[in-house]
Amino acid sequence: MKCPRCKTKTIREIRYENFVANQCSSCNGFWLSRESLISIVETKEQKFSTSTIDKTISQSFEGVPEAEVANELDCPVCNKSMNSSNFGGDSGIIVDHCPHQHGTWFDYGELEKVQAYREYWDQSVDSNELFFSEALKDSNNTLGASVKPKYELSTLYLISIAAATIVDDFLNKLHGKS
Q1: Residue 115: closest CA among 51, 30, 56
Q2: How far is the C-alpha of 106 from the C-alpha of 36, rounded, in Å?
Q3: Residue 2 covered by a domain
Q4: How many domains does the chain fold into?
Q5: Measured distance CA(62)–CA(89) in Å, rounded
Q6: Which pLDDT tens digit goes with each residue over 7-35?
Q7: Which residues constitute the domain of residue 17?
Q8: Is the residue at 1 inside a domain?
Q9: DSSP 8-state class, residue 112
Q10: Rg (CA), the chain
Q11: Could you give the C-alpha distances from 108 to 5, 29, 57, 69, in angstroms and in order?
């Protein structure tokens, strides 16, 4: 497979966090299928230091810089121009994805930044669990003891479901799915 960045046949199949990934031996970028990307980000096998997470978050911004849009890369599967997008909409991590859903290209360091970005949001959810739990208790007390929810789900569980859909929603938007 030809590397979209180097334009040479330097991509080899490797195991990354126990999932199949394709990495360029020259520039160290990654080509990942949708399934591998979701699995890697959700598994969270690699842990990141607070300084790495802080640095990733401090570099976040919305949109895609014009230079990234102008620097089109070709999909290594179908050779069509890939689309550049800001992962999560405002992470500042610009990734390139095939419009025909063959995969996503991550330049060197971008995959780890995506993982750190996701870890930041997971940590935010964990640190705010107590706050949300207390807020729910207060709202239930305000409603009165006679009002009981039909289903009781923990706040952390509900927030975890929302956080777990970030990658999937992002990929669906990239590929024009609703």
Answers
A1: 56
A2: 13
A3: no
A4: 1
A5: 6
A6: 999 999 999 888 889 999 999 999 999 89
A7: 11-174
A8: no
A9: H
A10: 19
A11: 10, 4, 17, 18
